[in-house]
Design a protein that fits this description.
Elements: E1 2-7, H1 13-26, E2 31-36, H2 38-43, H3 66-69, E3 75-79, E4 83-85, H4 89-93, E5 102-104, E6 115-116, E7 120-121, E8 133-137, H5 146-151, H6 154-158, E9 168-170, E10 177-178, E11 190-192, H7 209-224
Parallel strand pairs: 1-2, 1-3, 5-9, 10-11
Antiparallel strand pairs: 3-8, 4-11, 5-8, 6-7
Helix pairs in contact: 1-7
C-alpha cells in the first residue's frame, strides 16, 4: 500500500479530489491517499503554530509532519493539492533510494510572476518548490518532530535546513512539472499548477487545463455510476 499525503486547503477542495482521482485511476498498486487537514492536526495537538504572512495555503508547513504521521516508518509521499497525476505513481515510489532521507525534484528557477492564485505574493527563495513534492524515507526524517515543525522558521523547513544536503535525493523533473513556468511537456508525469489551477477563473486556460477538466469529468462519471 503506497502512502500518499496531500495538502488540503478548503479553497482548493476540488483540487484535492481531482488529484486523488488521477492517482487512483493510474496506479498499478493500491494507494492510501490522505488529506492533510490543518484543523484535524490542530485538534490532535500536532500543529500549534500561528499562520505566518507568507503561508499561502493551510498546508504550507503541515507537510513536514508527514514522517511523524507515518510513525517514522516506511516511505511516504507528500504532494501539493494543485497537481494532476498523469502517470503510475508506483513508478515514482520505485525511484526511492534507501540511502536518502528525502527525494525531491531539485528545481533551479526564478518564478516568472510577482503574484499567484487569489492575488497572493509569489515568495521567492532558494530551493523554491522543492518541498511541493517530497518522497520521505520516514525513518531518516526523525528530525521532523512535531516540536521542530511548530518552532522552526518556514524558510528553515522549506530549504531543508533540518537535514544534510547529501541526504536529499533527486527525482526527474517530469515528476513535478511546473505549469506555465516550464514549456509544455507531453511527457510530464505530474503537472503542478503552482501559479494557479484551472479551478480558479483566471487560470481556466492555463497549460494542461483541458486534461484537468477531463479528469474532473471522469471523477463525476465514476460518482454517478455508483
Amino acid at each position: 500500500m503506497l502512502q500518499v499525503y496531500v495538502g488540503f486547503d478548503p479553497r482548493e477542495a476540488v483540487a484535492f479530489d481531482a488529484l486523488a482521482h488521477s492517482i487512483r485511476r493510474r496506479s498499478s498498486v493500491p494507494a492510501s491517499i490522505k488529506p492533510l487537514v490543518q484543523k484535524e492536526l490542530r485538534d490532535a495537538g500536532l500543529y500549534t503554530r500561528e499562520r505566518g504572512p507568507t503561508e499561502s495555503t493551510e498546508f504550507s508547513l503541515t507537510r513536514f509532519l508527514v514522517p511523524a504521521l507515518a510513525g517514522y516508518q516506511g516511505w511516504s509521499l507528500f504532494m501539493d493539492c494543485d497537481m494532476l497525476c498523469r502517470a503510475d505513481i508506483a513508478a515514482l515510489f520505485a525511484l526511492r533510494r534507501p540511502d536518502k532521507a528525502v527525494m525531491v525534484v531539485k528545481h533551479d528557477y526564478v518564478p516568472k510572476t510577482q503574484r499567484k492564485f487569489l492575488d497572493q505574493v509569489q515568495t521567492k527563495y532558494p530551493r523554491k518548490n522543492w518541498s511541493s513534492l517530497m518522497l520521505f524515507n520516514n525513518e531518516r526524517c526523525r528530525a521532523l518532530t512535531p516540536d521542530h515543525v511548530n518552532s522552526a522558521s518556514g524558510l528553515e523547513l522549506h530549504r531543508f535546513a533540518w537535514i544534510d544536503d547529501g541526504a536529499i535525493g533527486e527525482l526527474p523533473l517530469e515528476w513535478n512539472w511546473l505549469v506555465d513556468e516550464y514549456a509544455h511537456n507531453p511527457s510530464a508525469k505530474i503537472a503542478h499548477f503552482t501559479i494557479g489551477g484551472p479551478y480558479f477563473d483566471e487560470y481556466r486556460r492555463c497549460d494542461y487545463a483541458a486534461e484537468w477538466f477531463a479528469e474532473c469529468e471522469s471523477m463525476r462519471q465514476c460518482g454517478s455510476s455508483r
